[in-house]
Design brief:
mainly alpha, 170 residues
Length: 170
C-alpha cells in the first residue's frame, strides 16, 4: 500500500510537470492579462481597499527593476490615473523609478522624456529571472526524484526483508 501511494505521488508530480511545460503559453497569457488588470486597479481604493495590489505591483517593479507589463507605456494605457489628459505630469508610479526615494520621479510630460524610470517591462524581467534560475530548479527537482526513487527501493527492500523474516518464523 505504501509503495503504491509513493508511486501515485510520483506519477502526479510527473503529470503536473508535463502539464506546466505543455501549457506554458496559456499560463503566461493568463498572468499577463491579470497583471494588466492589476495595473488598472492600482491606486483605486474601491477595488484595492487594503492596498494589496499597489504594494504587490510596487514590490515587483522595485525587485525586478522594471515598469509595467511590457514597458512603462502600459500605465497610461491601462490606468486612467496615469493618462496624459487626466494627469499631465504623472505618467508612472514611483516604483518604476530607478531611485524610488526621489519624489515625483515618475512625473514627466511623456514617458520617453523621463530617463529616471525603467524602460523594460516586468514580463521580460521575470521571464529572464526564471530562465536564469532554471538550472537550480532542475538540480533541486533531480535531487528530489533521486530521493523518491531511493525511498521506493528501500521500502521495497524492507518489505522483502520483513516478508522473508515472517516466513522463517513459521
Amino acid at each position: 500500500q505504501y509503495m503504491g501511494f509513493l508511486i501515485l505521488i510520483m506519477l502526479v508530480e510527473i503529470i503536473l510537470a508535463v502539464g506546466c511545460v505543455a501549457m506554458k503559453s496559456e499560463v503566461e497569457e493568463y498572468a499577463t492579462n491579470k497583471t494588466y488588470e492589476f495595473i488598472g486597479y492600482y491606486g483605486d481604493e474601491a477595488k484595492d481597499e487594503a492596498d494589496i495590489i499597489k504594494k504587490t505591483v510596487d514590490a515587483i517593479q522595485e525587485k525586478f527593476e522594471c515598469c509595467g507589463v511590457t514597458g512603462p507605456d502600459d500605465w497610461p494605457n491601462y490606468n486612467a490615473a496615469y493618462k496624459s489628459e487626466t494627469a499631465p505630469e504623472r505618467t508612472v508610479p514611483d516604483s518604476c523609478c530607478k531611485d524610488p526615494d526621489s519624489a515625483g520621479c515618475g512625473s514627466a510630460k511623456t514617458i520617453s522624456d523621463n530617463e529616471n524610470i525603467y524602460k523594460i517591462g516586468c514580463k521580460v524581467s521575470m521571464i529572464n529571472f526564471v530562465e536564469n534560475n532554471l538550472l537550480y530548479v532542475g538540480i533541486v527537482s533531480g535531487v528530489i526524484v533521486i530521493l523518491q526513487i531511493s525511498i521506493l527501493v528501500m521500502v521495497s527492500k524492507l518489505r522483502t526483508t520483513l516478508e522473508d523474516e515472517s516466513y522463517e518464523n513459521f
